């Protein structure tokens, strides 16, 4: 079906905006339930070992305490898919901060106080907490999707590097960084008549339902999950975490009383995942004209002992630049730490820090402008698969970004510009993110006697604007005005939908709504002669298979530019200007789309300058586990942030021609800032974040 855009592309204000401003949009913890109980967890104070004894006497005696859960009395779990969910099932401790108990009480204050009265003793082991490149126990992570190969090789990389006219061999690192959505992970669990209702802050209600059904041996009609509004996720809420399981356990022990559980900010640093630290080695070789002949990119990362997770930091290296000889590899070290997880643009974000920093270094070594060097190495087809790109406008993004940014006024010599004691520099980096899609979504459309269309799909809006964008898609697919669409999302009482993640939401849900609209219009015309029957009309349709998958390489691209000021005496780094130009297919909503790009770039700025979770390597916990010590970019750090896109027609990705905008904005930002720091100072910093201690003494 070809959509004639009328609503699509417009800068519509958020449909859910007025309710959020007035405080009427209910988030998980805010749902009113009768006579709720409150849960507070007990966390392990060792990183590895076993629990040898538990004393709950004082906690149980505290007035208002209803129950104390430990592995001695907690409900048993059934089919456990992820080791993260194995809580209160044995005396084993796998990481510091693991849930080993919980107190349920009439008030949150009582629960928290009584949790401090529970006493555990341990037989502690010696934790292994050090990620180093000289370890002997690295493993190759399992490949979970064909798009995410762990190790690839083409040609003879070593010979090509040995004979190249210009070479680079450098190591780049990124630290552990944590998700910090405004809304903490929260759950309200309520068992009634052997049925479970969950209000959860989630990026995918059906995924929560599937996991819960397996863990607690429940049928589909016994579980309902509701998550209509989510205050940010960044990947941490893609899957249900241990906090959801713990709340359900407590509610099952206390049927009839709903149990509320919201993580504190400190607890989130051990419970909801993080971006793993990476150690990445990049080797590049070029001929005398600056054309790459070889690319090698390897990444070393950590995972936990309870479940394997790999950050695909070398994935995009296979698609961005042309080179006949190429190799990528990923290795994991299993440590006594919490499990890393998906975080905004997983893989590409740390990976492009390394690759785009290396490309900047290589351009300088070849005596070429960084933009011209990238354009010189632009591939005509996907370098690894040989497939044509469905659309690829990286060169246009670089050219348009350079024009808007004023790149032609740049002196190529580092340390050539000084203003009132500040060294001024500019940098550029490319961005990319794959166009992914996952089958399984179903949409329902119903037209009633009031001439309004009910569009139902259990999608998620994690603050990205899905409420509005899906309404726009539905209106155009049905060829009606947006004010005739009543969208319902975020509830397993609605038809199945995949979760929000991988910038797949609009692709999957939008394609499904378009298919349902096409079915609706066909049914109305063929069976009812175009006349709506008296009792209305209802149809359902599943997301269709995209026939172009496997025929084209599908990716988004962008170019990021940064202006950086570095104080010549203190090394303080400021970024007064960021600018990005992106090729992201058809933009569904110009207002929320720009917001996503600006938000991603701001998060990339935060990654570049501030974010670093400091692990105490004696005891296994993050030391700076709150927003007073874990620094994120605030208003004072963010100057001008400009986001633009090029007009891009791509009929192959989905019926809307969209590619997703939630993640690509973060991808190249840190590298652009790092490259600008080098241009300002002549000092190359290869380790994030770009703090003044890495510049002092070198200026």
Question: What features would you highlight for this structure?
Answer:
699 residues, alpha+beta, Aldehyde Oxidoreductase, domain 3, Aldehyde Oxidoreductase, domain 4, 3 domains, 7-stranded mixed sheet, 5-stranded mixed sheet, 26 strands, 24% strand, globular
Describe the protein.
With 699 residues, the chain is of the alpha+beta class. It has three domains: 155 residues, Aldehyde Oxidoreductase, domain 3; 332 residues, Aldehyde Oxidoreductase, domain 4 (2-Layer Sandwich), CATH 3.30.365; 105 residues, Aldehyde Oxidoreductase, domain 4 (2-Layer Sandwich). Helix content is 24%, strand content 24%. The strands form six sheets. A seven-stranded mixed beta sheet has the order 3-5-1-13-10-11-12. Strands 7-17-16-15-8 form a five-stranded mixed beta sheet, sandwiched between helices. A five-stranded mixed beta sheet has the order 18-19-24-25-26, sandwiched between helices. The longest helix is centred in the C-terminal third of the chain and has 24 residues. The chain is globular. It starts with 16 loop residues before the first helix and ends in an 18-residue tail after the last helix. The model has no long low-confidence stretch (mean pLDDT 96).
